[in-house]
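Run: sequence + magnesium ion -> complex structure.
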Amino acid sequence: MAASGEPAARGVALSKAYGSGDTAVLALDRVDVEIDAGRFTAIMGPSGSGKSTLMHCLAGLDKPTAGEVWVGDTELSRLGDKALTRLRRDRIGFVFQAFNLLPTLTAEENITLPGDIAGRRADGAWLAQVVETLNLADRLRHRPHELSGGQQQRVAVARALAARPQLIFADEPTGNLDSRSGAEVLDFLRRSVDELGQTVVMVTHDPNAASYADLVLFLADGRIVDRLERPTADAVLERMRRFDVRGGRQVTLPAPED
Amino acid sequence: MLKATLRSFLAHKGRLALSLLAVLLSVAFVAGTLMFTDTIGSTFDRLFRSTSADVSITAHNDVAGRNDQNFSGTVPTVPASLIPQVAHLPGAAAVNGRVALAGIVLTDANNKSIGAIGGAPTIGINWNPGPNSPVDLTSGTAPTGDGHVVVDADTVKKHHLALGQPLHVIAATGGFPVTLSGIATFNTTNPGATLVFLDTGTAQRRLLGHEGVFTSIDLTAAKGVTHEQLRDRVAPVVGSAYDVKTAEQTAKDAAQTLGTFLSVIKDALLGFAGIAVLVGVSLILNTFSMLVAQRTRELGLMRALGASREQVNRSVLVEAALLGLIGSTLGLVLGVGLALGLIRLIARGGMVLKGSQLAVHWPTIVAAYAVGILVTTVSAYLPARRASRISPMAALREADTPERGAPLRVRAVVGLVVLAVAAGLLVGAATDRNLGQAGILLGGGVLLSLVGLIVLGPLLARPVIRAIGGWFPRVFGPVGTLSQRNALRNPRRTSATASALMIGLALVASLSVVGSSIAASFDAQIDKTIGADLIVQNSTGLPFPNEVGDAVQATPGVGLVVRGQGTRGALVAADGTQKRTVVVGTGPGLDKVVRIQMRSGSVAAGTAPGHALIGSNYADAHGLHLGSPVTILFQSGRVGTLTVGGIDVTDTNPGGLGDEPVVASTTLRQYVPGALDDVVFVNVAPGASKAQVKSALTTALAKDPQVQVRDQSDYKKLIRGQIDLLLNLIYGLLALAIIIAILGVVNTLALSVIERTREIGLLRAIGLGRAQLRRMVRLEAVVIALFGAVLGLGLGLGWGLAAQRLLAAKGLQSLAVPWATIIAVVVGAAVVGLLAALGPALRASRLDVLDAIAHE
Ligand SMILES: Nc1ncnc2c1ncn2[C@@H]1O[C@H](COP(=O)(O)OP(=O)(O)O)[C@@H](O)[C@H]1O
Ligand SMILES: [Mg+2]
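>> structure
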């Protein structure tokens, strides 16, 4: 794991523009951000605020128009496709909102896929621990279509954890789940930080989900506008309302669940 | 609805492109074949009609057969004395004697043969520029006296001959030197022959052996007299010993011979076109299946908005018909190009279709559109039916529901039953002694086994692909696993794609088995029958002048020399019935150069003067024994009664001495004066080396380039070469079907890549490199192609085996499996897979990761 104190990932004056001329959209506007190692960071903001773009840039899936991205001590802007692919494979784990698993592979094969691609020998003990933690032991031989949505997302989390990456990125991992399954997945992400020492970055627009994090970064119009340590759902909701009023913007937030 | 169909057609044009290509290629092959054969047919019709004399008189001879192929020195002729008898007849405007004889040889000063390639004949003709002459003298002078010839311009050009150049003509009576005095140019189509014009006296003496005879007498009808009227006046004058024919009859006879040949070529080409069409069907079927699957939501929405089942069904079929229409039109255009290309190709072989337009008859156009539209609509029918069954609810559901086909159990039962029947037919074909019946059984077995395997394909996909790709995960890691599972994802699609390849490869495999079995059988037959050290023969089997045999006998190092002659004739039974056969003449010592299995008597006794050696089948059928009289009708028309001196066991194997009677050369020449040798067997003298004698003979025969000196292994090579040539030709024609099958693999992969865009995005996000992704697609293609190859080879070996057993009844006893070809097919299939994957793999690896993840 990255040494504590040293950030797991860093964005320096990140900008990302789509299109050009009059129709240009500035999805990220000179963002400076640090992701602390061994912590659970949530990125919040209204739809279209640039959350996914920020995550993609930090994860080496997208190239910023300007600025620098550091993962550990590697600067990404100079890396080619091969090096970026290797970086994602070896140092980063992903959990997407949906379609996380390959339908032709079993749960177990999906979990070990990044390691298999890299040609690494699986660490059996670690794998067993991850599977144990995520409560997937009796689902390993199943194909994705035989699993529930919550189980599928748990397999995705297990895959992200299996290779012991420096960083796990999760883009709205509970967006497609009912509240119970969602809570389960969030709980596992939390435990992976607490018990397994992982670093997790999660994009969400659900204050309840954000409350599982150690730190919430608020994004609006491509800029980080605020941060909140050790959040609760209410505090997040409150903070969102406050800067909405201050910014004079209309933001529709989903109704808190239950 | 039609508007919606058109719009959807245009929206999918990229994905329909490969199907369009398949239709286009099939239609082009069909249309090109028809145009090509029609063009040849009509060109020759015109040629025959324009070159036939109004009325011609030829010798009537049932036994001798067509005189233009006969070079035995005993050509049926018409005496010149008939000319004054018919010249004064009312209505005869002109009478000309014609000499035309195929089978002569023209060589240059270095004894190099000048003549058309590919077996087209060299024809010696008397120079007699009448109204029906196919040539005009375009430079130099007409041939006069013994020493001059005129040669056709195409030959002159091809062999860079010049006026005044010394040449050599080898005819029945031997060779004689000439000079090229003039060049004649075809005023119609050049059928590919080499024409050598001599003055009439020379032609008669040198080609026919006598002055005062012609091969035919041509009459020109006066104005106002029809050909029939003239014929009816000529016929009673010349009597029944001669055939009198009008130009129409002559042309018709000639066209009939050509027509049979042309229709064989046409049927063969159309057969290959049919295979290409069949393969195209599977490609189009796959495309439409995938289009329908991808459009489940759209079609469901149409249903939800009130479109009826029939409307949905029709919209898919109209789309298919549209594809067929465009494909047929483009295919027709390409077909014209193909026909022109073929015409140019045969022009290189010597047949110049000059001044002839391409024959595009309306049946060709109808056939082209029928094939194109029928093929596409038939192949789109199943997917269309499936589309119409889509419930309106599908519009709201995830589109990722797996395809449903006929229940697996039904498929398995139907497939196995069909395959069992097919196997029964093939075994029947292999064991049936009746050739015609066995052929029908074989055809049925081939067809049914093909159908059976296509039906069973989806069920076989899993076990076969597991076996083929079982080692992939170990060697290629997760990429191997993924490619193998992807290939198995939709077994029906995989098997449809693979069956396209299977058809072509099954034919390649079975024909290669048959071809090499035939070659092996000939090898065995040559070993079994040929005892001579060396054999001198003309490559076309035609006779050659006696100077060849004389030269052989004069060559140092030769021991026993046996000269053989083949003439036409018939065995005449006691009741007068005739059995047409070749009557063989031989010098003494035949049993030392050919191994003949005797029933009774001896070869020497059978070939003693006044005696005959006959086959056991004929002897049994007619109750002949040693000493019995046997009556033979010779090609001269004379009948002789000889004494049976030996009975050999009838050998019906190809190359074996069948029921042909063998007599002494001296006896043969009593009845057929001047019969020429067509083979000379040579045993080297004791102590002489075979190689040295062979090269000495080759040198001695240098001025007769039409004959070759061969030993047993040369013969084997010759036959193998001919079989290989034929096989390569067939493989070339099958290439079209295989190309379409490759397009099918490309198609399937391209559509799979599109369908799996999200998966590809995910794989790339979690760290699969571009090269690995390309390898994944390539391996999937290789698996599909190998699946096709395995099925094809299995099927082809089965067919080949059945066909070989069938041929065994005809004497082709040996079975040889050409393992080199089989291995080449497997390797080739893998290469085909790799090639087919090039485009789709590149496309997959170029997908933008983020776009792919977000792909709907
Ligand atoms: N590929 C793209 N092309 C053009 N604009 C884009 C693209 N991706 C995102 N955007 C724009 O960038 C902004 C931020 O998008 P995104 O990061 O997806 O927001 P969020 O994830 O917070 O909803 C939005 O205005 C969006 O429309
Ligand atoms: Mg987003």
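>> summary
The domain at 9-245 of chain A is CATH 3.40.50.300 (Rossmann fold). Residues 6 and 100 of chain A are 30 Å apart (CA to CA).
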